[in-house]
Amino acid sequence: MKGEILLKNAKLIDGRGEHGTADVLIGEGRILSLSGGEASTVLDATGMVLSPGFLDPHAHLREPGQEVKEDLQSGLTAAARGGYTDVVSMPNTCPVVDRAEMVAALKRKAAEIAQTRLHPAAALTQGQEGRVLSEAYLLREAGAVMLTDDGQTNEDAGVLAQGLLYAASVGLVVSVHAEDAGLRRGGVMNEGAVSFQLGLPGNTSFAESARIARDLEVLRYVQQRLTDRVPGRSLLHIQHLSTKRGLELIRQARQEGLPLTAEVGPHHLTLTDEALNELNPIYKVAPPLRTQTDVEALVEGLLDGSIDCVGTDHAPHTQDEKALDMLRAPFGIPSLEVCWPLLYTELVEKRGFPLAVLIARFTDGPRRVLGLPGIHLEEGAEASLVLWNPKEKRPVDPQTFASKARFSPWAGWELLGWPVGTLVGGRVVFGLA
Amino acid sequence: MSQSATQSFPKHLLDFRDWSRSQVESLLETAQMMQEVLARPVKKVPALTGFTVATVFFEPSTRTRISFELAARRMSADVVSFSSTASSTTKGETYRDTLRTLDQMGIDAYILRTDAAGVPHQAHSWLHKPVINAGDGWRAHPTQALLDAFTLREKLGSLEGKKIAIVGDILHSRVARSNAELLPMLGATVVACGPATLLPSSLPGATLTTRLKEALCEADAVMVLRLQRERMDKGLLPSLPEYIAAYQVTRERLGWAKPQAPLLHPGPMNRDVELEGTLADSPQSLVERQVANGQAVRMAVLYHVLVGKRS
Questions:
Q1: So what CATH class is B142-290?
Q2: What tens digit of pLDDT does each residue of B244-258 get?
Q3: Domain B2-140+294-306, what architecture?
Q4: What CA–CA distances, in Å, run from B222 to B212, B244, B264?
């Protein structure tokens, strides 16, 4: 058999488990063979792991309008370096992505950049103003894969209910930033012993759990109203879960069979509000870094499947913005380039988290959010893949980021598992030189 | 001032994280000497001749600023002042750029006030000169706590085993936080009291209560905090009359404390809001003494930060 790229002696691990080592022949955008063959490019992948490419269900790429923070070129390049073959971009840009032609324009530009594939999320409501629904059918036709008012909170439960009903009839998942704005107040960090001592406005974990509780009731109502449902398809996606209590509510709802999915970010799995003792706005993020109890619960939730996926919530800002004070610096942490090695090191290496499960949370899990089938390493499968090195240890160095946001709360952390190559549809978009 | 030169001091005064009890006590002893300087007909010493200090206030303040500037001048330092409200700063230059600009002009120490917690700590990383925190948001106001401790010791002697009650808006008070940090270092017990909407759930160094009687009972001293009127707009308090009825420190309620327990207030006071107006002028009140002592304490801080840091 003849192909384009032959990866020799790669260790195969996907969301289903480990499948030994193989010579993987890639051509015509697919995995042609797992038992070698001829290829114009032959690469020795000894010691490396080959996995399905990662899908990030939640990244802020800032285009249009905030290109000083990030743009499609830098953001998609960062994604490719992070092992991502697919990224869902958030619509809270300037202007808000709430019209079909904007989605189409983003898709066109991303296709020209030809890095990681872009899947725009569009606003649930026009202008993300929480009043009038966006044109979900037209948005989906143009390529939108998700509806969300992320950046804003859906304060009006009635609008969210109608949005969920309408999105369900179009076949799109609605993703929510679950925080009660009234309870959150002006909090810039987790409310608790640390915020009280530091004298910084706190954002209570109950702002998240109260909103999740409400949204789950809204979802129950929507489910009752819906005449035709697609079994197994998520209608409501809870973004960036940060609290133990929120997780408990989600776990219970899933046991009831409610059609929802949930996501957790790398920072909520590896950092706590103790970091704020440094009084460095680099740790300012929404929802905020919580406590070690929350971290432990979230790792458990990621393991037992209550949480489907890891979403980076990659939120780039300029370094100057992050050098403002704790009240004025914007919320957000960039993480596309470090998310995989970070969680491989901190969860798999240090905690014994099962590797195949973590891979599933980067591949099959986020695909489930979007209603897509899982992706596995088998002949005939799409060759959107990541090759990564489980042995090479390297510190996080923000100065080397492709992202414009060259800062990181994990700067200096020694991580394993760095991607060495990313292929999208059989084409190398990063590494493998 | 020879003993202070034999002890190594933190280069900054951001809060009391890096300060030991003996350093604080040594500083208060220096303040005592400064007090003597201030009692002279010519209130000036050459200790800081040749040094330039800058007061950089990103939040309006009169008394703290004047206190610091006089303290510096009485020690023969040159003083420059920068002031800008947060609103005008956010329109253009950032705190960091402002401070870096000033840093090019040969400033030897910065006295910094901001509305946001942590800016003095950030400034510490942006500048290569000592930073004195003159109040950062709700977080810390260390010279206020030092002058409170100085004033209390002047009146009570040692603070060992003394119960100090702090009454008012604890949640939003840098004065309460700094006192809860400092007074226990000197042996005192701090009880902080206010309605639950104005009280954190925890504050290291302090016991918290919503019950005024419990806080004032057998207190050796009572510190009353200013009530910001914006707390009503934020939905944290129903009304001023309500607050006055429930939490105003009145002559009658002050009777719960030990006889002649001194009364402190960091100022500026809302007379007849957080405390019964005439109490401020009563013999129990140390409010004016606090202001006078503030200058001596700030002289001592400047001296330690600029000169006494040599070991």
A1: alpha beta
A2: 999 999 999 999 999
A3: 3-Layer(aba) Sandwich (3.40)
A4: 11, 17, 6
